[in-house]
Structures are given as structure tokens and as C-alpha cells.
Write a structure and sequence with these properties.
The complex is a heterodimer of chains A (249) and B (66).
Chain A (H helix, E strand, L loop, with lengths): L3 H6 L1 H4 L5 H10 L1 E5 L5 H11 L3 E5 L24 H12 L4 E5 L5 H8 L4 E4 L4 H14 L3 E7 L2 E7 L9 H4 L10 H4 L3 H20 L8 E6 L5 E5 L13
Parallel strand pairs in A: 1-2, 1-4, 2-3, 4-5
Antiparallel strand pairs in A: 5-6, 6-7, 7-8
Chain B lengths: L1 E4 L2 E4 L6 H7 L7 E5 L2 E3 L14 E6 L5
Parallel strand pairs in B: 1-5
Antiparallel strand pairs in B: 1-2, 3-4, 3-5
The chains are: A alpha/beta (249), B mainly beta (66).
Chain lengths: 249, 66
């Protein structure tokens, strides 16, 4: 049951046939791990906290730099030098004291990630490098935990959803099989704030839809966003039977 | 034969596979992803996948930023 404060706070959700009290309780019971509290993790965590995701775990090892403020909208100038997860945790609790927020202020290695996944219903990959993305993908495949991946540089965004609770699910590694390759990131390519914000916001939308039981429009698909034309392209991702990460499943 | 690559018309030889197309276009094999008619062709199929006349091919790069 939702208490009176929650009924008031989530009244605009409760008006929606697709959410209602059942959906809101599902959000309250949900446990979501967000890895990376930068330009994707900022809007994703703000929206998920506001929406009443009951258990949020935030992971990042960075402290806030002045060059982050152009796009990482959780942070303000006074926060420079402070830990991203600690500042985010404080702000999320200010937005919504009804939820539980836990912070992990370090770079998670495979062992800790595996342990965290035993407690997570769903993971958001909001990281900024290929090595972390491959590590997170493998851990989610092994733990059979659904994964929503966002990425952005310049005016371009990428969004995909893999439900690893399904045995025949493809994975991130089927699409991008190498972690060694030179990949584009915000530090070497630049990024427009609202582009990465759009992708992070859509990651949050997909989380809410997942827990209230709405089908995802991006499951086993890659969405490419062009921030200049506002065009979207959609590609189907099939499982690679020779994939080193998920091919044996 | 003619195909479309990222909305540009490109002329390729018959029996061109994806790997050869990337070489012909001078695109890096590492970090690239390829879709034919809105379906991703995983890297393990690049050698065996033969492109057909009129195929609509999308090439894009892995991006890691966030």
C-alpha cells in the first residue's frame, strides 16, 4: 500500500491507467543500479528518484570537475571537487525522501559488480568508456539482469535494451565485440548537453516502463539519435551465436 | 551493382561481402558496426554475408561517451 504522502506525491502517475497504484508499488519495490553519474546518469537518476524507484544504487569514482557542469545537470559550481555519488545521493534524497539511495564511491571490479547484481533488478549503463561497458555487459549476461545502455558524443546518441533474463537475448558484445578498440568519448570528441540528456532521460523512461509492465520499444534494438536533424534510426540486434560473452547461453 | 551506404549510392562488385565493402570504403574494421536493411550484421558474419543489389547499408561507430 502507498501511504498518504506517496498518494499525493505520485498523484500524476496514479492518474495513468498504465501505472496506477499497482505500477507505483512496482516502482517502489524496484532496485536499480546506475553505473556512471555523468551526463547520462544525471538526468536518469533525477527522474528515477522523482518517479519513486524505491532502491537506487549509484556508482561512480569521479569527483565533480568544472568541465562537467555544461551537461551534468545534477551538479552546480559549489559542488566542484566533491564526490559525484555523494552529491547525487544528497540531491536525490532532497527530491524524494521516500526512496532509499546507496552510493558506491569507487570503480567497481568484476567481483563487486557481480555481488551488486544479486541485489539489482535492472542496470543502467551510463559510463563513459568501452572497458566499463564490456565489463558491465558481461556481468549482466552472467547474472541474467536486464541492461539498458546509453551512450552519446557530439550530437549523436545510442540507446539499447537487453533483457538478459531471457536466454536467447543478444548482448552489447554481439554488437560491439572489442573493448580494445579506440572508441569515441566525450573528452576526446565533445558533447552537447541536451543530446546526452535526451539519452539519459530515455533510459529513465525505459526503466519506468519496465517496472510498470509496459513493453519496451527498444528491446534487442539499437536506436541511433541524430541531435542535428532529430532523426532516429532503429536497428534490430540478433544474437551472435559465436559471441564470447553470451553465445554459450 | 548499386547499393546505398548511409544514404549515398555506392557501386560495388557482385559477391561483395561486408568486410570487403568496409575495405573498399576505407572504413576501419575495429569499432565499426554494420546494419543491412535495418538489421545489425554481427562481426562474425562479415566475411560470409554477401551484399545484394539495392541493399540499404548503415555504418556507424561504437560510442562510449556518457
Amino acid at each position: 500500500m502507498l501511504n498518504d504522502a506517496e498518494l499525493l506525491r505520485y498523484s500524476r502517475h496514479l492518474l495513468l491507467e498504465d501505472v496506477g497504484e499497482t505500477g507505483q508499488l512496482a516502482l517502489k519495490n524496484a532496485k536499480v543500479l546506475i553505473i556512471g553519474m555523468g551526463g547520462l546518469g544525471s538526468p536518469a537518476s533525477l527522474y528515477l528518484a522523482a518517479a519513486g524507484i524505491g532502491h537506487l544504487v549509484l556508482s561512480d569514482f569521479d569527483s565533480i570537475e568544472v568541465s562537467n557542469l555544461q551537461r551534468q545537470i545534477t551538479y552546480q559550481s559549489d559542488d566542484v571537487g566533491d564526490s559525484k555519488v555523494e552529491v547525487t545521493k544528497r540531491k536525490l534524497q532532497q527530491i524524494n525522501p521516500e526512496i532509499k539511495v546507496r552510493s558506491i564511491n569507487k570503480s567497481m571490479q568484476a567481483d563487486q559488480l557481480t555481488m551488486e547484481l544479486t541485489m539489482a533488478d535492472l542496470v543502467l549503463d551510463c559510463t563513459d568508456n568501452m572497458q566499463s561497458r564490456q565489463l558491465i555487459n558481461k556481468a549482466c549476461v552472467d547474472a541474467k539482469v536486464p541492461l539498458i545502455v546509453g551512450a552519446a558524443i557530439r550530437f549523436e546518441g545510442q540507446l539499447m535494451f537487453f533483457d538478459h533474463s531471457e536466454a536467447d537475448s543478444p548482448c552489447y558484445h554481439c554488437l560491439f565485440p572489442s573493448s580494445e578498440e579506440q572508441t569515441l568519448n566525450c573528452s576526446n570528441s565533445g558533447i552537447i548537453g541536451p543530446v546526452v540528456g535526451t539519452i539519459g532521460t530515455l533510459q529513465a523512461l525505459e526503466v519506468i516502463k519496465y517496472f510498470v509492465g509496459l513493453p519496451s520499444g527498444i528491446k534487442n534494438k539499437l536506436k541511433l539519435f541524430d541531435g542535428k536533424t532529430l532523426d532516429w534510426q532503429t536497428f534490430v540486434i540478433n544474437k551472435d551465436p559465436t559471441c564470447k560473452v553470451c553465445g554459450h547461453l | 551493382m548499386k547499393i546505398q551506404v548511409n544514404e549515398q549510392v555506392v557501386e560495388v562488385a557482385d559477391n561483395t561481402n561486408i568486410e570487403r565493402l568496409l575495405l573498399q570504403l576505407d572504413k576501419p574494421l575495429m569499432g565499426s558496426a554494420v546494419a543491412v536493411n535495418q538489421e545489425v550484421i554481427t562481426r562474425s558474419q562479415w566475411e560470409s554475408y554477401i551484399i545484394n543489389e539495392g541493399d540499404n547499408i548503415s555504418l556507424f561507430q561504437a560510442i562510449a561517451g556518457g
